[in-house]
């Protein structure tokens, strides 16, 4: 779950070189860029606070479970509002790099989820939740974090966009394949849910941007904050629903999430290096593989499994933003030294 990239960032991406590993020098920092950076920085604290509220007062969110898909729809609609046709043109310009990012994302993270569930001998509910996080599309803050890391933002935007569009076709069968040994998985129903909560809101947001772009541009700076607050509410609802089990399972879930995210970042970066995409593109690959749309995972786990199965997604939503910000700062420091 992530605060969304801004349209200003998108417009800068359109002017970036398209050769593998190339990245343009950052342009002037705009108000929208600053808003996105602040949202990414504050987001983990906001989500952590929301989780604490859900844990301390679970009764407050007792009747909110049914609202989770609609809240996720708001987040994805905001994502659609930040998109432009140029995002899809970037895919046509760099099909090999984008295809590599998609394969790496949908192979590495689901595989890691399955391996970690077995290695830690997780309960069926938690195992299914960890695997579902791995099968989700790329996280929504990955583009901004890639920018902060001085990575290839054009590649990051392309991979994130296509992984989200393909989620209805990829996430359900992967979940059935890997989590089916733990819990029954209704892949058909999951496809329908992803279409309603992800693809339709994204397409709707994109349509609004195309029709009313002049007005949307005026509120782009507020979209990361709206997404962050909405995701925080989702986390509060998820945590409240499994408050009774968190005390005994929280430490184990945190270990699983840290391993999942950390190995994903490392292997994503390694995939870019192995394919000789160059340092900027490798940095983008790290975040596109290691950061997940944990809001979608939490929504699907709550609807198809149980609130306990949504706990890994709630923890992931906090941790991957913390780790992403730290790794981005480290990568940016190394890039500046190399230059």
UniProtKB/TrEMBL annotation:
Q: Which cellular components does GO assign to this protein?
A: membrane
Annotated Gene3D superfamilies: 1.20.1530.20
Keywords from the UniProt entry:
Membrane, Transmembrane, Transmembrane helix
Membrane topology field: Multi-pass membrane protein
Q: What InterPro entries does its record include?
A: BilAc:Na_symport/Acr3, Bilac:Na_transpt, Na+/solute_symporter_sf
> What's the chief localization of this chain?
membrane
- Quote the subcellular location field of this record: Membrane
Chain positions covered by the region annotation Disordered: 1-28
Coiled coil (UniProt feature): none
Instruction: Name the residue ranges with Basic residues bias.
Output: 1-12
Domain of life where this protein originates: Bacteria
- The protein here is known as Bile acid:sodium symporter
Q: Which organism is it from?
A: Streptomyces alboflavus
